[in-house]
Structure formats: structure tokens, C-alpha cells
Specification:
Elements: H1 9-18, H2 22-35, H3 40-54, H4 66-70, H5 127-131, H6 148-154, H7 174-178, H8 181-195, H9 198-211, H10 217-229, H11 233-246, H12 250-262, H13 266-279, H14 284-296, H15 300-313, H16 318-330, H17 334-346, H18 352-364, H19 368-380, H20 385-402, H21 405-418, H22 423-435, H23 439-452, H24 458-470, H25 473-486, H26 491-506
Region (Disordered): 82-139
Pfam families: TPR_12, TPR_8
Keywords: TPR repeat
Length: 507
């Protein structure tokens, strides 16, 4: 006689959840709930599994929509002192890279070595500028909705279920669940992350905090997250401060610093990070936060120091390696940058951007054969038209460097075929057309580049020089002024302006 022993279904569901097989866990729980609808353990486990399917860490991800940027009510100082605002980062401090060395985003910051979600420093001044964001400002680009991520999370509850939605939020008695701590926390996370119903989550968190007699720091953090999502930043600040007074926790410091960054108070955010380091010495996430703020404020030397501290604690930190590598590249040390990017390759990072950077480092280190093979590999790994355009643009730059102007012309044309908003390619094509003697074509390309990328000084300066040579002094003066606005320290622009002013004064 054989005896068959089967595993308890609830234990099997719990084991599946532990192994991150959330769909299987939810299916088993659904079967169990069909048999016993009031089983709280199964209900709680299914809620947790559904939440984990769509969970994204709130600490790292930050996206501001056009509405958040243009209709901001928390503006404190429109003209902040230099070095105290993310909106107007300092550009002339010692050690800061200039646009002549390191390209800038539309928000006025140098392009970083690691793409991050949009930050407050990318706040546009006009609605047109917010909608038409150039390629180089991809790290500061506003998304068209309140947040694409929140919309995606909110639609998780709209998936068709044979029996309707798992939890009908409108019929929940929140006061009853607030008195059950174990069920309450999983229910809150389900409402906040899966359903994206922030107001209901806020009501539940407020009732649970009251039931805990305002002594549970976890609920205060959740209240702060709800307030932050709703744009009530000062209320969020109070909740995070209160939670830190009860319990020091790394994530709470990160949330509080995020609030201050949204309020455009980077100095206060740095203070919060450093207070966190007093309690949690050498914590990688806090060090990374400090480095990011220094980088956003154009203070590259301090940012590099903190990224090096990060690597002392975690020598596989991709963001720190990439940012240090890009800093070395833009400070005329391509060989050292090559070592950092090769380290990323050894760690298993294998994408178009890495091979693109390796190719440029090899080119500036005069390893031309390796440069072309790396850029060919980058072309094979592209995942979108913008990446394809960037790689072809860099190939054109390599072709200019080795003197093959015909190849360069074809590469820049290919770059525009994949992305016709590529301002740099238009600018370089204009220079090549000018060398051929096609003045009108060059002027058209420069005007296109200037309209697509108003934050770049090169098309404005080139147009000013070209107009000056053909005798159109008024257009030259206007373009030179735009170049000066984009890069005040540019010596050649100052010389053109000086000569034009002398010419106008003598008329």
C-alpha cells in the first residue's frame, strides 16, 4: 500500500512567494480563497504577492511630469544664490567643466555618466521648452503625464479577473482594518503600489497611525510617502522628521532628502545625508546621494571624491564606476576612463552605451582599430533610433578625427536619418557644407541646430562667425548674444561681440 504525501497548499504558496514566483503564489491563494473566503493568512499572502509584482522602490525612482514642473506652487526663491539651487547650478566655479569640454543638458548641467530620472534642475521656463526637449537633455526630460510609472502601476488593478477585482476599495471599512496591524500593513502596500489609490492609502495610514497612538515610525514614513506623492511636500517633511526622531532608518533619510531636492534645497538635502552618515557610517546609498547632488550642482571634484568613497565600500557599484569614468574622459584622461569602462565590461554590463563609450575612449587614446570595432559592436547592440543616431554621430566624429570627411558626412546624414532632432549632427554637417563652399546650406543647418538645441553654444557661435564673414552683422550680433547666454566664458564669442560693438559704435 502506497501513501502519498502532498505539501500543504498554504506553505507551497508561501514558498513560491519567497522564491519570487508571485503569479503562482497568487493562483494558489485564489484557489484556497475559493474554498474558504475568510482565511486571513491566505488573503494577506495574496495581497503581498500582487503588490510585489508591481513594486518599485520609491527611494530611487523620481519622475516629474510637465504639470508638476509648470504648475509648481512650492517655488521659494526664483533667483537663488549661486551654489544653493539645483535650478541654476554654478558654472564658473573652480574645477567645474565648461560646455567647451563637456556637453550640457538643457537644464545647464553637464551630461552625467549615468542616466537618472528627471530632477528639479530640469525645470523648463516655458511650456514649449518643456514639450520640445532636445536629445542631450534626456536625463532632465519631463514625461507627458503626471508620471508614466504611476499610470502603469494604477492599471494593474484593471486586469480582467473572472470574479472582478481582488479587493473592492470603495466597500472597505478602513477603520476596522486599521485596528489589525498585521493585515493593515499589507493592505496599505496593496492600495499604494498595486491600485495607486493614494488618497485611500493616506486615509488608512492616518487611521493606523492614530490607532498606534502615533508611536509607530513605519506608519509615519508611509504618511510621508503619500503626502509626497500628492505634492504636499511640507507635510511629508514633518512626517519624515517625526519618524526619524523615533527610529533612525536609512530609507527615511533618503525620503527626507528627496523632499528637500524637490523643494530645491540641495544644501539641506546634503545636511540630511550627512546626518544619516553619522548614524550609518559608510552607507553606500547615502554616499551616492551626496555624490549625485554635488554632480547636479556642477561640483565635479567633490562628486568624484564621494563616488570613490562609494567604491571603497562597494567595488561593483555601476553608477560610481560610470560617473568616475566619464569625469576622467572629460578631463583629458581617456586611458584612465578606459580602465573604468573595461571594469564595467568585466562585471557583465553589456550594452550599446558601454561599447559606445569604450569606442570614444579608444579613439582619444589613439587606438583607432579598437575604436572602430567597439563602435561596430555598439551598432549591433542598439535598441532604439536615438541610440543608433548617437553611435553614427560618434562614428562621424571619429571620421573627422582621422581626416575622412566623406565618411563623416555620410555618418552625420545617417545620424539625422535615425533622429532628425539631433542638433549636434546638424551643426557638424553645417561645418562640412561650409568647407565645400555651400554657404546657404550651412546657414540652414546652423539655424536648425540652434532651434533644436538652444542650450548649445556651438551653433550660435558658428552662425555668428558665418554671418560676420558674409557681412550680415545684425544676425551675427544676435547669434553671438545667444552664444554668450549659453556659455558666458567663451573667449571667441566675446571677441566677436567686442569687434561688432566697435563696428556699430563707429557707424
Amino acid at each position: 500500500m502506497e501513501v502519498t504525501v502532498s505539501m500543504d497548499p498554504l506553505f507551497l504558496a508561501w514558498s513560491s512567494c519567497r522564491r519570487r514566483r508571485f503569479q503562482r503564489c497568487a493562483d494558489i491563494c485564489s484557489t484556497l480563497l475559493a474554498e474558504s473566503p475568510y482565511d486571513q493568512a491566505v488573503w494577506s499572502l495574496k495581497t503581498r504577492a500582487l503588490t510585489e509584482m508591481v513594486y518599485i522602490d520609491e527611494v530611487e525612482v523620481e519622475q516629474e511630469g510637465i504639470a508638476d514642473m509648470m504648475l509648481d506652487e512650492s517655488s521659494i526663491a526664483q533667483v537663488a544664490r549661486p551654489g544653493t539651487s539645483l535650478r541654476r547650478p554654478a558654472t564658473s566655479q573652480a574645477g567645474a567643466p565648461t560646455p567647451a569640454v563637456r556637453p550640457m543638458t538643457q537644464s545647464g548641467r553637464p551630461i552625467t555618466g549615468f542616466v537618472r530620472p528627471s530632477t528639479l534642475s530640469g525645470r523648463p521656463e516655458t511650456m514649449e521648452q518643456a514639450i520640445r526637449t532636445p536629445r542631450t537633455a534626456s536625463t532632465a526630460r519631463p514625461v507627458s503625464s503626471a508620471s508614466g510609472r504611476f499610470v502603469r502601476l494604477g492599471t494593474a488593478s484593471m486586469l480582467t479577473h473572472p470574479d472582478g477585482p481582488f479587493i473592492n476599495l470603495s466597500r472597505l471599512n478602513l477603520a476596522k482594518y486599521a485596528k489589525r496591524p498585521n493585515l493593515c500593513k499589507t493592505l496599505f502596500e496593496y492600495i499604494f503600489h498595486h491600485e495607486n489609490d493614494v488618497k485611500t492609502a493616506l486615509d488608512l495610514a492616518a487611521l493606523a497611525t492614530e490607532h498606534a497612538q502615533f508611536k509607530d515610525w513605519w506608519w509615519k514614513v508611509q504618511l510621508g510617502k503619500c503626502y509626497y506623492r500628492l505634492g504636499l511636500l511640507r507635510e511629508a517633511e514633518k512626517q519624515f522628521r517625526s519618524a526619524l526622531a523615533q527610529q533612525e532608518f536609512v530609507d527615511t533619510h533618503l525620503y527626507l532628502a528627496k523632499v528637500y531636492q524637490r523643494l530645491d534645497q540641495p544644501i539641506t538635502a546634503l545636511t540630511v545625508f550627512k546626518q544619516g552618515l553619522d548614524h550609518f557610517p559608510a552607507e553606500v546609498t547615502l554616499l551616492t546621494g551626496i555624490a549625485r547632488i554635488h554632480e547636479e550642482m556642477n561640483n565635479m571634484s567633490s562628486a568624484t571624491e564621494y563616488y570613490r568613497e562609494v567604491l571603497k565600500q562597494d567595488n561593483t557599484h555601476v553608477e560610481a564606476i560610470a560617473c568616475i569614468g566619464s569625469t576622467h574622459f572629460y578631463t583629458d584622461q581617456p586611458e584612465i576612463a578606459l580602465r573604468f569602462y573595461r571594469r564595467l565590461l568585466q562585471m557583465g554590463v553589456f550594452n550599446c552605451q558601454l561599447y559606445n563609450n569604450l569606442g570614444l575612449c579608444c579613439f582619444y587614446a589613439q587606438q583607432y582599430d579598437m575604436s572602430l570595432s567597439c563602435l561596430e559592436r555598439a551598432l549591433a547592440l542598439v535598441s532604439g533610433d536615438e541610440e543608433q543616431a548617437d553611435v553614427w554621430y560618434n562614428l562621424g566624429h571619429v571620421a573627422v578625427g582621422i581626416g575622412d570627411l566623406t565618411l563623416a558626412y555620410q555618418c552625420f546624414k545617417l545620424s539625422l536619418a535615425f533622429n532628425n532632432n539631433h542638433g549636434e549632427a546638424y551643426n557638424n554637417l553645417a561645418v562640412l557644407e561650409l568647407r565645400k563652399g555651400h554657404i546657404e546650406q550651412a546657414k540652414a543647418f546652423l539655424q536648425t541646430a540652434a532651434s533644436l538645441s538652444p542650450h548649445m553654444y556651438e551653433p550660435h557661435y558658428n552662425y555668428a562667425t558665418l554671418s560676420d564673414k558674409v557681412g550680415d552683422l545684425q544676425s551675427s550680433f544676435t547669434a553671438a548674444q545667444k552664444s554668450e547666454d549659453a556659455f558666458p566664458e567663451h573667449v571667441d564669442t566675446q571677441q566677436i561681440l567686442r569687434s561688432l560693438r566697435q563696428h556699430f559704435s563707429s557707424l
